[in-house]
Amino acid sequence: MPGRRNVGSPWWHGRFRGGGYRLTVPRQAILNVLSRTSRHLSAEDIYLEVHKVHPHVGLTTVYRTLELLAEMGMIFKFDFGDGRARYELSEGPKSAHHHHLICTGCRRVIDYSGFMDEELEFLKRAEKGLAKKYDFEIKSHLIQFYGLCDKCRKKKAA
């Protein structure tokens, strides 16, 4: 039946059709790579994984596709301060809302999702206050904390 989503299809199938875009082989391959990892992959990391299965997909195509997917809101693009953009899915089972702790020593990125009630309440108040103050409808937020992980602090102390 036209317009009906196949049972078991990934969530992004409908997003492409609904947005007027085609789900091409490179787009599908990139989303598949991102759906199978919990790491924050760079374009080069994604390219290497896609290239194993689809050697005809070039790095330029991966960069262009990642930009389109970010514009469509299907992936998040992060800058963790290492000069390389990193990507992760915005929806799906591995995409629960989280923040990032970024070690400025070793560049390790820790996903932080174990929010305490006080933290959630603070974020809700902050969003509500900012929305009112600037007459701005907040849809989402990204928070990144920079510092030193336990291993880097121990190295520094030694």
Structural descriptors:
158 residues; alpha+beta; Dna Ligase, domain 1; 2 domains; three-stranded antiparallel β-sheet; 6 strands; 44% helix; flat
What does this structure look like?
- The protein has 158 residues and is of the alpha+beta class.
- The chain contains six helices and six strands, in the order ααβααββββαβα.
- The chain folds into two domains: 1-91, Winged helix-like DNA-binding domain superfamily/Winged helix DNA-binding domain (Arc Repressor Mutant, subunit A); 96-158, Dna Ligase, domain 1 (2-Layer Sandwich).
- It has helices at 12-19, 25-35, 43-53, 59-71, 117-134, 150-157, and strands spanning 41-42, 75-79, 85-89, 99-103, 109-112, 144-147.
- The strands form two sheets. A three-stranded antiparallel beta sheet has the order 1-3-2. A three-stranded mixed beta sheet has the order 5-4-6, with no helix packed on it.
- α2 (25-35) packs across α3 (43-53) and α3 (43-53) packs across α4.
- The longest helix has 18 residues, at 117-134.
Chart the SSEs and their pairings.
Layout: H1 12-19, H2 25-35, E1 41-42, H3 43-53, H4 59-71, E2 75-79, E3 85-89, E4 99-103, E5 109-112, H5 117-134, E6 144-147, H6 150-157
Parallel strand pairs: 4-6
Antiparallel strand pairs: 1-3, 2-3, 4-5
Helix pairs in contact: 2-3, 3-4
